[in-house]
């Protein structure tokens, strides 16, 4: 029997150069009121984006919470939620990369619930109330967090990450303004682009794939292969920036329904314990997981994927993907990350089982170990 599938999407998308200027009317459409602006510690100030955002929200006032570190812990999300409540904020505006947007989504929900955040992230409790409305403004083309419900946090033991994605966590509005990504440095342009590519490829092979996620994933892959090198070589190439922002959004519309798979599962300890940037960490094992999953896709789906990657055949798609990831800065070996053979068992143990199971067939710990041994 054909499988029954669903597709849920709850975010209004406002896309285009200069679209940040629509912020005040989008805030008003959500009821207005004082906003909590959530961002990282420095880059939004340096680029001027924070000042612009604050000015656009001037009428109803805004409080800035600029304490978001990379790979934010739950404690920062709880701190932001408390700040939103204390200052009477009615709206949360996130500007930045995935860390800022994920944190804002979590703050919006934590502020409306009484238990510690870890109870919800470890799925002992379910978010039951609607949170504060969130407007998400991405300045990187990678996470796609602006149009999905996922929130990822560093786990309390600080060795891996935990994630959840309740339907109330969809931002109400996403403003995608390519001009905001122009100041992103080359290395971050490349690594966030690799994150988007991993989202698309992983969504395509997960066990929950369906026609809508396939279409979004394949078009996202095509756009990233075509435009990421251009965005890296010339950050001011607005056509490349715009296509990458579209690609990361499409990848998110794909994995927002399907979840991500093995490369994300293995990436969490690489990032949290070995400090490897998220995009580079997911791209590190992407070709090996493709090699493992490709024979399970079936001939037609494997051919569609290899076509999107620009490869002549499914067999060649693994090599095409590997050279693309490495040309964008993905590490080639565990040694590049500072991981030795004796660490492999820890990486396997800390990898996310939920992600590894979200594959055409569940991936065993032994298979993960073998993939990592290939990367020595
Ligand atoms: Fe990711």
Helix content: 40-55%
What ligand molecules are bound, each kind once? fe (ii) ion
Let me know the number of strands: 8
Shape: globular
SSE order: EHEHHEHEHHEEEEHHHHHHHHHHH
Supply the number of structural domains. Answer: 2
The portion of residues forming beta strands comes to 5-15%
Q: Nutshell version of this structure?
A:
The protein is of the alpha/beta class and 376 residues long. The protein has helices spanning 23-29, 43-47, 49-56, 74-86, 98-110, 117-121, 186-205, 211-233, 238-258, 262-272, 278-293, 299-308, 314-327, 334-337, 344-350, 353-357, 365-374, and strands at 12-15, 35-40, 62-68, 91-96, 134-138, 151-154, 161-164, 173-176.
Keywords for this structure?
376 residues, alpha/beta, Rossmann fold, Dehydroquinate synthase-like, alpha domain, 2 domains, 6-stranded parallel beta sheet, two-stranded antiparallel ribbon, 17 helices, 51% helix, binds fe (ii) ion
